[in-house]
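Session log. Operator J.P. requested a structure for one protein chain; no other inputs attached. Running the standard single-chain path with token output.
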Amino acid sequence: MSVWELADQLVSQLSERDETVATAESLTGGLVCAHLVDVPGASAALRGGIVAYDTSIKASLLGVGQALLDERGAVDPDVAESMGAGVRERMGATYGLATTGVAGPEPQDGKPVGTVYVAVVGEHTARVRGLAIDGDRVEIRRHSVRAVLELLQEVLTEEQAGD
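Structure written below.
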């Protein structure tokens, strides 16, 4: 399934469930939100997105703890989870999606290029996945978009099975 088909399926699922999503993106720079916006009718499910490329924005707009950022840097699973929680809360969404990582060309905060964390945070859900992606900036960012959308799909499927 292409990433566009996946985004279409997610918007449909969220709309049918009367649920919403918001995005907090660092390395993907708005690509996750853009893929969702490409779906006709996305406004029924998409609340919006914040591109928090600069680390200070992660703290000021998304509420990521400054001590966490100082201690571990922006490329960290707890930072991804906190970004997801922050965007969910600030935008009043059912789910917050987050991406943070190193797209290159240089390592960041001691993390090698291709280190990525994606997160999906809901009222009763906090799921983070770490990835080690080979490729150039475009490939790393593209794979990160797919990974966070697939993680949301997993969460929605599991929650529906639990209903």
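Operator note: The longest helix spans residues 137-162.
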